[in-house]
Amino acid sequence: MSTAVTVNKLTFSYSGREKKILKNVSFSVQEGESVGIVGLSGCGKSTLCLILCGAIPSRISGNLEGEVTILGKSIKNYTLSQVGTKVGIVFQNADWQLLTNRVEDEIAFPLENLCWQPEKIKTRVKEIMDKVEITHLAFRAPKQLSGGEKHLVALAAVMSMNPPIIILDEVMSNLDKKSCQRVQQILEVWKKEGKTIIVIDHQVERLRYMDNLYLMQEGRLLPAEVNMIEHYYAKLIRNFFKGAKDHDFA
């Protein structure tokens, strides 16, 4: 089995800021493997996603140290558009990637950029909308949808390109229970097809089905198991309420 993603000693801080968002992060993901990364808001999860999809440093500047390899090739040797054919990502803020005025056009847009034939695009768009169960949204404006619907549309657009590596950044946090289950079913199908999957979330419960789990804590990435992460969160909650109690009686 080949390695899909390798991250080696990755450290990053945004331009004009001294604080290191990522600190010596190293991990690898094999082709066909699913990985979950759990952590509190602000711990560096989304920044890691932006690096893996090439947005950092191509679109967002900062001090980046370390090495990222995608499918055996340094990410530095890809153009941003080339990374886009290898790594499909749905961002935590779906508005970042919704560009058109109709849902069906949003799904067709990446295929048009790849110079697909119109009839082939039409067939593919219908197939993807059926899979994600958003056919009823076909003629709606993406910007006018709910947060959960926007994420489903962004997911459908990623699916249309059929990339070998898929990253979801806090996508299920904005979905209702039924839509969450649908996304998990889609991920299961993708995994059977041999795709590499990285899912970012702050709730470990939604990542129990992943092959491997990591806990991100203050910019550092640690291999973890469900029980370890649950213990970590329980400790945070205890400390929070202890602090509140001490404050009330101070």
Commentary on this structure:
There is one protein chain. Helix content is 40%, strand content 25%. With 250 residues, it is an alpha/beta fold. The chain has a single domain (3-244), classed as P-loop containing nucleotide triphosphate hydrolases (Rossmann fold, 3-Layer(aba) Sandwich), CATH 3.40.50. A 6-stranded mixed β-sheet has the order 6-7-8-3-9-10, with helices on both faces. A hairpin with a 7-residue loop joins strand 1 and strand 2 (22-30). The longest helix has 23 residues, at 226-248. Belongs to the ABC transporter superfamily.
The description of the largest β-sheet is: 6 strands, mixed
Number of domains: 1
Lateral strand order in the biggest sheet: 6-7-8-3-9-10
Q: Given the helix and strand composition, which structural class is it? A: alpha/beta
State the name of the first-level CATH class.
Alpha Beta
Question: What's the Cα radius of gyration?
Answer: 19 Å
Helix % is 25-40%
Order of SSEs, N→C? EEEHHEEHEHHHEHEEEH
Please report the number of helical segments: 8
Low-confidence stretches: 244-250
Q: Round the mean pLDDT to the nearest integer and report it.
A: 90
| CATH topology call | Rossmann fold
Q: How would you sum up the global shape?
A: globular
Which homologous superfamily in CATH is the superfamily?
A: P-loop containing nucleotide triphosphate hydrolases
Assigned CATH architecture: 3-Layer(aba) Sandwich
**Strand content bin:** 25-35%
Beta-strand segment tally? 10
Alpha carbon gap, first and last residue: 58 Å
EC number: 3.6.3.-
InterPro entries: AAA+_ATPase, ABC_transporter-like_ATP-bd, ABC_transpr_CbiO/EcfA_su, ECF_ABC_transporter_ATP-bd, P-loop_NTPase
Keywords: ATP-binding, Cell membrane, Hydrolase, Membrane, Nucleotide-binding, Translocase, Transport
GO molecular function: ATP binding; ATP hydrolysis activity; ATPase-coupled transmembrane transporter activity
